Amino acid sequence: MTPIIEVQRVNKAFGGLKVINDCSIQVEKGSITGMIGPNGAGKSTLFNLIAGALTPDSGHILLDGEEITALPADARFHKGLLRTFQIAHEFGQMSALENLMMVPPHQAGERLFATWFKPGLVRREEDEVRRRALEVIDFVGLHHVRNELAGNLSGGQKKLLELGRTMMTDAKVVLLDEIAAGVNRTLLGDLMGNIERLNREMGYTFLVIEHDMEMIARLCDPVIVLAQGSVMVEGSIDEIQRNPEVIEAYFGSDAA
Ligand SMILES: Nc1ncnc2c1ncn2[C@@H]1O[C@H](COP(=O)(O)OP(=O)(O)OP(=O)(O)O)[C@@H](O)[C@H]1O
């Protein structure tokens, strides 16, 4: 196994409340790893620690073998670790396509001197960004609404657009936080299909927090179950669903 994310014996408390408890996980490069657990288990806190929105009290976090524990979120982003919905939300008054074109950092068009002295270069880069944005909008199935204002898209279409914005970056690892919430089943099917394709065809690794078990079952292997801030079990969805400890944690002792 080649881990792309490693969380090593991480602890995090808020005031007196210990939320992450000597927690260690590994996410294998090229996997779609799921993370589930009862409410309050610490899933979002762990995501915040991995993405850099929070700093651990102790322990280490590695990306592709490199220690990132002390790096701020934007430095982690530039290393290819991306949390969806971390990029600013869509610009409602711009079209879906323009929203994708806004994503690439350091566009030459934004550099004043480049605009003055190298207009040809700026135009070429803009053409390239536009070509890529058109490819991406096809990929996420939003070609038919590419010229609609992003603010007029449905909630599910906005999530597809967000996934598209992820693809405009050079992300290697994407943290998906409860993306199924509020998305209708048809669009959710599209979203899952696109995540699978990004994984298979473009080598993205995903770490997914999700309450929607259908989505976990279709996409994720392995699945990590977090309880009280540390890993309770890890395995395939079938192993997880048969595990008496997991059943107990979710449904109480009566169900075990
Ligand atoms: N900034 C904070 N300050 C104080 N307590 C916090 C903070 N963030 C989270 N907590 C507490 O930490 C615990 C774990 O929260 P967290 O959101 O990580 O759990 P979760 O597994 O993501 O839960 P859910 O499935 O309900 O989203 C909860 O008891 C929560 O109240």
TrEMBL record:
Domain ABC transporter: 5-253
Entry's transmembrane regions: none
A Pfam cross-reference name: BCA_ABC_TP_C
Protein name from the UniProt record: ABC transporter ATP-binding protein
Keyword vocabulary terms for this entry: ATP-binding, Nucleotide-binding, Transport
CDD domains according to UniProt: ABC_Mj1267_LivG_branched (cd03219)
GO terms, molecular function: ATP binding
Source organism phylogeny: Bacteria, Pseudomonadati, Pseudomonadota, Gammaproteobacteria, Oceanospirillales
Domain of life: Bacteria
PROSITE patterns cross-referenced by the UniProt entry: ABC_TRANSPORTER_1 (PS00211), ABC_TRANSPORTER_2 (PS50893)
